[in-house]
Fold these 2 entries.
Entry 1:
Amino acid sequence: MRAVWVSYIELNSMLNGKTVAQAKAAIDGVMVNCKAYGLNAVIFHVRANSDAYYKSKVFSPAASVKNLLNAGFDPLAYAVEAAHSRGLELHAWVNPYRIGTNKSFAKCNDYFESDGRYYYNPASDDAQKLIISGVDEIVRNYKTDGVQFDDYFYPSNLKNLPNDDYNKYKSDGGKMSVGDWRRTNVSKLIATVYKKVHSIRSGCVFGVSPRGVQDQNYDVVYADVALWMKEKGYIDYICPQVYFGFLHKTQAFDKNVDSWIAMPRHSSVRLYIGLALHKIGILSDQYAGTNAGKAEWAQHNDIMKRSLLSVRSKPECGGVMFFSYRYFTPASLTQSSWSRDVAIREVENLLTVMKP
């Protein structure tokens, strides 16, 4: 697997205000470039904030593609066709719980606010049914090769989260701690989505791309990734976001990858590694813990190349996914606090080893 995430931010830039012909050309351009880079899969953002980048009866259209959809153009349908015609897989990337800053996009009443953003309540049966119906619609109507959830489960800041549902669970005789109860809510959705995907179309897989640090998955966003990896019936693949350099003090890239390899994993679950293409050339990786780690991305221009080769040397790993598409062309980006020259050389070095 050599995949790249194409985020809704990138889609907005490509598709907002465009004619159908321009939108087709933009999507074709993505697929042509991905093929040229040596990639073989595209992780295409189809729902970021309870909005749809495709023709949906469940969710409102994303603002940037509303006019295109009204004109009869379906970005996802075209992207699937454009990918497959070039020998690329296309996985539909969904943020299941995020509603965003505009609560009017909520499609059921079971949601809460955290830090100015709205999220569907993972404990809600209605919210789970809504999310599952959205996945059903994608897999049934589009020949996607997979569906992927990323690392947004419970929000990180839960200080203002209503505990009414948990209190009701306790008053009804529930014995689980609030953490175990939240993880159970999320795991229930994951298992149901897995079953739904496999019931509709054989060959379509379901994967999750969680945070790169397992403790954060378990204790911060209440995602029991270890369970999903260990037991069949939750996921087909896991792709932790190992967005660290080799000199990171506590999460050095190779050591972090080894920690994921060491986790018990059912034979049906594939392990991919998410790579931080978006960090190339940055002047300071502020959470790296050491001066060498903070400066690593500015002082080295082969981190992505070494990361890919490192993953490739480990038979337990089935490939990589890069975040994200636009960083394959750093010469075209305008960013602060980074070295464009280093970033350009990073991509040049990476491309020399991209094709196996």
Entry 2:
Amino acid sequence: MARARTSVDAGELEKLEWPYDWPPPWRTARLIGHEPAEAALLAAHRSGRLHHAWLLCGPRGIGKATLAWRFARFLLCGQGGGGLFGGVPEGLDVAADAPGRSLVDARSHPDLFHLRRTLDDKGTRIRSEIAVDDVRGLGAFMHMTPAMGQWRVAIIDAADEMNRNSANAVLKILEEPPPNAVLLIVAHAPGRLLPTIRSRCRRLVLKPLADEAVVRLLGEHVPQMPADERAALARLSGGSIGRALELANAGSLALYREMVGVLATLPELDMVRLHGFAERFARRGEEANADWRSLGYLLDAWIKGLARGWATGSDVASQSPAVSPAEAGLQARLLAAASLDRWMEAWDKVAQLLSRADAVNLDRKQTVLGSFLEFQSAMR
């Protein structure tokens, strides 16, 4: 069936794909904090037995896609494609004027395929899943002869967004890998992929970034942000620069302080304060949507901080830096009132509430109220 004509131009389409103020992975040349992963890819290339499929795993926003694009440039722009520059490459860096570099950055290189969610049939919105029709295009691409060099490279970002039909179509490609073709699969939660896909890939696990790396990157992307706020966001981001930047753009430190202020009233809960906090999520618009996305991140960070406090016997307020004065002594008090198991059980219920609210468009204010009442129940 023929695709409907798209109603957006290339610039609008990229904005739909990447609705952020910082550069997308395909135009990000530098990667910080993942030197072991880069070394593994380079060593595999040097061995002359480069595996045909790589599963790049790790939490969302830590640089997996950026690494995939760096390796694609390396293979397609000379350094990894037959020694056009002479000698043995020492890293994955590619010169700005390397042959084909601008084509890769524009995602228009003839030996490159970017499999991701595409426009829906109306041509105005990005699909929620990777369509099986797009995977069929990948299959045809992988069996073509390279047009400009030695390799053909395909990037799937992210595999978590494939439905069962598109996942099965990718599996067929993996079962009959063509020569001189490399498939780089980005996965935030590889355990959700088909076991047969995982078994046919070489897995490369990327770890969350150190706080120092997140602070450094925030300084580059948000130079006007005070140093103490960058350090606070690094702690809340869980080692994800993508998450840290989203929180920074949404002004989420103020949201976090308000959230902790409500949590500090447990176990009784100041219901007037809670209703005032929940009211902000009843609004509509992009700002309200950003607050809603941030809330899930921040609650997750808070629960993980609670778990770290239990494991280390230290309070989050003793870490550097504390984000809110209300954090002082809060972890110890809450952990004395309920076991960590009870808190984790409550968080599992809250996470399901938040997910269900997005899936079936539940009332956000009521969802927030219900979430905090779950935390209250954990202490009773």
